[in-house]
Design goal:
Shape of chain B: elongated
Strand content of chain B: 25-35%
Oligomer: heterodimer
Distance between the termini of chain A: 14 Å
Order of helices and strands of chain A: EEEHEEHEHHHEHEEE
Distance between the termini of chain B: 88 Å
Number of domains of chain A: 1
Strand order of the largest sheet of chain B: 6-7-8-3-9-10
Helix content of chain B: 25-40%
Radius of gyration of chain B: 25 Å
Structural class of chain A: alpha/beta
Strand content of chain A: 25-35%
Largest sheet of chain A: 6 strands, mixed
Shape of chain A: globular
CATH architecture of chain A: 3-Layer(aba) Sandwich
Helix content of chain A: 25-40%
Number of strands of chain B: 18
CATH class of chain A: Alpha Beta
Radius of gyration of chain A: 18 Å
Chain lengths: ~250, ~375
């Protein structure tokens, strides 16, 4: 395993200005994420976990610090917040799949079409290939027999599996998931974890997931706690090698 | 941009509309689901017509069939029996799934409780998405139109943000802008405010009212009574059946099962203008609810001259004074106005049984009785003397 991190956060702070004054949502976060990790960030509501995820995927602007991602030809790392909006969006589309608590499938498209959508938008795949690939992804999440159904006709857990398949459409290296099991019962949530573990162990994907559920900590290859905008584990946040996937 | 098979398949022509025709006609809709436990009838023969430009709410308890009913209108689900005509088109007969999908793209805007915005697209891109699929506007025109829609819902400042960076209320507003992207004549919404605070919910209802003012038809499933008062019509579904709208309008405090019971036993009577419905001093054996037209309640003054003590219209009732208090009619009740009066009647025994089981309704009807007796005492000199 390479000792180079896939994602590196250096002294990241995020402050929101509100009518009531400045609110520090993230305070001086230092974090390294290695390739092939299943990293869980656990914290209560308001602890800053979603804000942290939005820094990592470059959705939100940071106040201080940097988030370094892909390596450039000269060996230096790219800071995603230094990219233009378009470049960042392009980078994200290629490298990151996002999954949220509510599944955001388009109700008027069947499951297959929902998964084809990101491929359609990115033009990364030939249309025929995108259909085949969407079917493969449905097989991966064991929903191929429902391919032609509209989202309304499958369960919440199945919809979330489709959302995972869609997040994988453009074959990103990294998946970020914000409370992906938050609205599912524990058995269904278990199934989602099985899919995630498969992606990490068998396909070498890196998954960063935030959750408020302390009980899930043991399912990750590395688990960090966030409270009041600060990572609680100090040095652990930088030690990704020790606990990467496969050594679990 | 190259065209994918998906986009090409969904290309449609602009909708043909006939302004004289109802927007939605459901005829004898039955929907049955089968599961391991057997067959379950979700809709038991629903007939419903919704006119163009109407703002209609549909309510019902969880499991009553209200969302299934909406799925019949959107073409998402198929009825087991019956016919659905939306904007002049029979959407289940002789039409393929892909034709229905085309038709839907042009004719329907749909909003759900959870907003279904694509997380990786900006709000502007999300709103442009249906235009892309329906291929209705020129490619260059789409961002401008999407921006106009975002401005309409007050989100122009957030156009380039991703959904996760705006509030849930704003996400729902963006979803509404997206639903209107292809300028559909019909907007269908399933619990559109179910996940929102009161203020955001109010903004959304105001938007819907704006669409209706432009001549659009809006049909909304909700369980929030504060929203149903803002619509033209409120349709209640109970146990897979539609409650008579006159019953629910006249006796809103009744439990749904009682409304349904009244719906089943109600008989309809039509009276021509001037025709007597209840003669004075006669026993009253029915409870009367007005569906359409006007009804005059007429008393005699000291000179034995008739005068109209009150003029009742749609959603009001009469006969309750005599049923609740016993005795003969205190006034002459007859059809007024210029057109026929349509009245729904419930036999005395059924009315009294249900009222006795529903204290809130008994109280509400009792208050009306008191008011009318007061009115009667003051105005009917004959009564005042006794």
């Amino acid at each position: 395993m390479s000792s180079t991190s896939l994602i590196e956060l250096n002294n990241v702070s995020k402050t929101y200005s509100t009518a009531a004054g400045d609110f520090p949502a993230l305070k001086n976060i230092n974090l390294k994420v290695g390739g092939g990790e299943f990293l869980g960030i656990v914290g209560k509501s308001g602890a800053g976990k979603s804000t942290l995820l939005n820094m990592i995927n470059g959705v939100d602007e940071l106040t201080e610090g940097e988030v370094l991602v892909a390596e450039r030809a000269d060996g230096r790392k790219l800071s995603i917040h230094d990219m233009s909006e378009d470049a960042r969006s392009l980078w994200r589309g290629k490298n990151m799949g996002v999954i949220y608590q509510s599944f955001q499938l388009l109700p008027m498209l069947n499951l297959l079409e929902n998964i084809m959508l990101p491929m359609d938008l990115s033009n990364n795949f030939h249309p025929r290939r995108s259909r085949e690939r969407a079917m493969e992804l449905l097989q991966l999440v064991e929903l191929e027999e429902h391919a032609q159904k509209l989202p309304a006709f499958i369960s919440g857990g199945q919809q979330q599996r489709v959302a995972i398949a869609r997040a994988l459409a453009n074959d990103p290296l990294i998946l970020v998931a914000d409370e992906p099991t938050g609205s599912l019962d524990s058995l269904t949530a278990d199934h989602i974890f099985d899919v995630f573990e498969h992606l990490v162990h068998d396909q070498g994907k890196t998954i960063i997931m935030v959750t408020h559920d302390m009980g899930l900590a043991s399912r990750f290859s590395r688990s960090l706690t966030i409270a009041d905008g600060e990572l609680q584990n100090g040095q652990d946040a930088l030690n990704f090698d020790r606990t990467t996937a496969g050594q679990k | 941009m190259k065209r994918s098979p998906l986009r090409a398949a969904l290309k449609v022509e602009p909708a043909q509309t006939d302004a004289s025709q109802a927007m939605i006609e459901l005829h004898g809709i039955v929907k049955t689901f089968s599961n391991a436990a057997g067959e379950f009838i979700v809709l038991k023969g629903v007939d419903l017509t919704i006119q163009r430009g109407e703002f209609v709410s549909i309510v019902g308890k969880s499991g009553s069939g209200k969302s299934t009913l909406l799925n019949m209108v959107t073409g998402i689900d198929h009825p087991t029996e019956g016919q659905v005509i939306v904007n002049g088109m029979d959407i289940y007969t002789g039409i393929t799934e892909s034709q229905r999908s085309k038709w839907r793209g042009r004719n329907l805007g749909i909003v759900f409780q959870f907003f279904q915005l694509l997380p990786m697209l900006t709000l502007l891109e999300n709103v442009m998405l249906p235009m892309d699929y329906v291929d209705l506007y020129d490619f260059d025109e789409r961002p401008k139109r999407a921006m106009e829609l975002l401005t309409l819902v007050g989100l122009e400042k957030f156009a380039l943000k991703l959904p996760v960076l705006v509030s849930t209320g704003q996400q729902q507003l963006a979803a509404i802008a997206r639903a209107m992207a292809c300028d559909p004549p019909l907007l269908v919404a399933d619990e559109p405010t179910g996940n929102l605070d009161t203020r955001s919910a109010d903004t959304i209802i105001q938007l819907f009212e704006g669409f209706v003012a432009q001549g659009k038809t809006v049909v909304m499933v909700t369980h929030d009574p504060s929203l149903t008062s803002r619509t033209h019509r409120n349709i209640i579904i109970s146990d897979g059946e539609m409650i008579d709208e006159t019953v629910s309008k006249c006796l809103p405090q009744l439990r749904h099962r009682h409304m349904l019971e009244f719906t089943k036993i109600a008989a309809e009577r039509v009276y021509q203008p001037g025709e007597t419905i209840i003669p004075r001093d006669q026993p009253v054996d029915h409870f009367f609810m007005i569906r359409k037209g006007q009804v005059d309640v007429v008393l005699l003054d000291e000179m034995n001259q008739e005068y109209v003590v009150s003029n009742l219209g749609r959603g009001e009732y009469f006969g309750e004074v005599e049923l609740m208090g016993g005795g003969r009619s205190i006034a002459n009740v007859r059809a007024g106005g210029s057109g026929p009066a349509e009245v729904v009647i419930i036999p005395r025994a059924d009315f009294m049984r249900v009222i006795n089981e529903s204290p809130i309704t008994a109280e509400a009807v009792g208050r009306i009785v008191q008011t009318r007796l007061e009115e009667h005492r003051v105005r009917d000199h004959r009564a005042a003397r006794t």
